[in-house]
C-alpha cells in the first residue's frame, strides 16, 4: 500500500493507549499493509499502529524472515527472562539493554477477524512484547533501570531528530474515524 511517516519520541500518540479494533474491514486491511510496508522499508523487526499515528491495537512483525500481524493482542509471558539490546523505530539509532520475557504466547486476530495464536521466543518474543507495549502507550525506555533510562533520555535529547516537526494527523473517512466504538 504505502510507506507512512513514523512518529518519533515526544509525539503524544505514542503515549496514548490504543483502542480495540471492532471493524475487520477494508480500512483495517489497508492499515496492516501500510504497517508492513513501513516496517520493511525502515527496516524494523516490528511496528505498531500508534507509530504511524493510528490509535488502534494492531502491530506487524518481521523476524527471521517471517512477516506477520496481530490485532487486539493478549499476551502470556514466560517467567524466564532474556536480556538484550533493544531499539525502536520511534527512537532512531539508539539501543539499550532491556529485560523481557524469554517466550510469549500471543492471542488475537488476523485482519480478517480470524483467531490467531503466536508462540514466540527470543527475538520474536521481544518484538511482540515491544509492539504490544506501544499499544499500551509504553516505550521500551520506560522498562530500563533508572541509570539506563537517564542515559537513554540524555541520548534522545542530543539526537538530531529530537524535536523535529511532527507529521499532520490524517482523519479517517470511516464513520468512527478509524477507532472502535
From TrEMBL:
It catalyses: N-terminal N-formyl-L-methionyl-[peptide] + H2O = N-terminal L-methionyl-[peptide] + formate. Coiled coil: none annotated. Binds 1 Fe(2+) ion. It is an enzyme of class 3 (hydrolase). Pfam families: Pep_deformylase. The active site is at residue 131. Its EC number is 3.5.1.88. Keywords: Hydrolase, Iron, Metal-binding, Protein biosynthesis. Belongs to the polypeptide deformylase family. NCBIfam families: pept_deformyl (TIGR00079), PRK00150.1-3 (NF001159). This is Peptide deformylase. It comes from Nocardioides kribbensis. The gene is def.
